[in-house]
Model the fold of this input.
Amino acid sequence: MIGRKAGALEDFRYSNAMKRADIVWDDTNLRDYLRDPQAKVKGNHMPFSGFANAGDADDVVAYLRTYK
Done:
């Protein structure tokens, strides 16, 4: 997922907001999204309010980096 454009995986049903988001998933964009999804991609329909603890978002990004 790191390095991929948001909303670009062909066999997944994304919200229109995610499809229109001009984001490439890097560490910074992922952290921002995981902390506050609605602020990063306004109109996104994913039912996730974000991590209150910034360290949790950092941990998820570090985990996702293991999948290359």
